[in-house]
């Protein structure tokens, strides 16, 4: 049985209940999420061949510090970096290092800032120099999956409607949806209830209600959906080494749909490709 609770009444830990936030809470999320989106905008000019993911990590830490925020990933369950950088066949949780990016790579950069206790969680794909059409197409399909998932959000429907919209489109484009990872509640907590699956049926999952806040972050593969986690305990890769892509927004459910908290201020939700504004 799913329980919904006023966020102010819930303890600051994941207890399995779904928090319903107030308009004032939405203000806090807007500020944290827009800081994250601004950082992701800045990274568009930084990601290029020869740049190391460690340099990206340092930039994310320093940008946050300059604006009174800390990266949520830093020292989270033993993770020692300020950002996740997932390159090519890395699905998610790639760990920054001193290896330089190469021409033709694609990289997902996942940033979560904690600002005044609120978690602004978002990720985007970045092309490194000139990329192949197959990689560009995967990014386009994945971004469209995100938009379709967001469009499914409205009070009264179930969270499965989000996954169904994503899965239907991805598979029609001959791509696959990763099932090992999902979106999640977010707000005062980094990872909260409910889980937001990126596949499934519209009649599955808890009912979406006004005041809920969660991420939608589909991971889409050119090959099969199967992944494995490397010995570092974090880095997830495609088993068949096919390319993977991911885009992520944090959204808050309104009376008629949802508000996207992490939209790019500069319209660069897809850096390197024509800027798109979700409808």
UniProtKB/TrEMBL annotation:
Residues 28-254 form the Peptidase M24 domain. GO terms for molecular function: initiator methionyl aminopeptidase activity; metal ion binding; metalloaminopeptidase activity. PROSITE patterns: MAP_1. Binds 2 divalent metal cations per subunit. Has a high-affinity and a low affinity metal-binding site. The true nature of the physiological cofactor is under debate. The enzyme is active with cobalt, zinc, manganese or divalent iron ions. Most likely, methionine aminopeptidases function as mononuclear Fe(2+)-metalloproteases under physiological conditions, and the catalytically relevant metal-binding site has been assigned to the histidine-containing high-affinity site. A divalent metal cation 2 binds at residues 121, 184, 217, 248. Its cofactor is Co(2+); Zn(2+); Mn(2+); Fe(2+). SUPFAM superfamilies: Creatinase/aminopeptidase (SSF55920). Coiled coil: none annotated. Monomer. Removes the N-terminal methionine from nascent proteins. The N-terminal methionine is often cleaved when the second residue in the primary sequence is small and uncharged (Met-Ala-, Cys, Gly, Pro, Ser, Thr, or Val). Requires deformylation of the N(alpha)-formylated initiator methionine before it can be hydrolyzed. This is Methionine aminopeptidase. It comes from Agrobacterium pusense. The lineage of its organism: Bacteria, Pseudomonadati, Pseudomonadota, Alphaproteobacteria, Hyphomicrobiales.
């Amino acid at each position: 049985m799913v329980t919904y609770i006023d966020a102010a009444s819930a303890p600051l830990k994941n207890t399995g209940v779904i928090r319903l936030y107030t308009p004032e809470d939405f203000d806090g999320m807007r500020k944290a999420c827009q800081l994250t989106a601004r950082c992701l905008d800045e990274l568009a000019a930084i990601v290029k061949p020869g740049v190391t993911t460690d340099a990206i990590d340092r930039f994310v830490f320093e940008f946050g510090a300059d604006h009174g925020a800390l990266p949520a990933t830093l020292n989270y369950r033993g993770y020692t970096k300020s950002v996740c950088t997932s390159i090519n066949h890395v699905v998610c949780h790639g760990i920054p290092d001193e290896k330089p990016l190469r021409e033709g790579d694609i990289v997902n950069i996942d940033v979560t800032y904690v600002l005044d206790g609120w978690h602004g969680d978002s990720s985007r794909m970045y092309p490194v120099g000139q990329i192949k059409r197959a990689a560009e197409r995967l990014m386009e399909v994945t971004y469209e999956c995100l938009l379709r998932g967001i469009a499914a959000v409205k009070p009264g429907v179930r969270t499965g409607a989000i996954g169904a919209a994503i899965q239907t489109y991805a598979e029609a484009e001959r791509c696959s949806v990763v099932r090992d990872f999902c979106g999640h509640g977010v707000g005062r907590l980094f990872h909260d209830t409910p889980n937001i699956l990126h596949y499934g049926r519209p009649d599955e999952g808890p009912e979406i209600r006004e005041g809920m806040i969660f991420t939608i972050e589909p991971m889409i593969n050119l090959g099969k959906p199967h992944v494995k986690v490397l010995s570092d305990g974090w880095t997830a890769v495609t088993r068949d080494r096919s390319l993977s892509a991911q885009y992520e927004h944090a959204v808050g459910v309104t009376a008629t749909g949802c508000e996207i908290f992490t939209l790019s201020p500069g319209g660069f939700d897809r850096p390197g490709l024509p800027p798109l504004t979700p409808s």
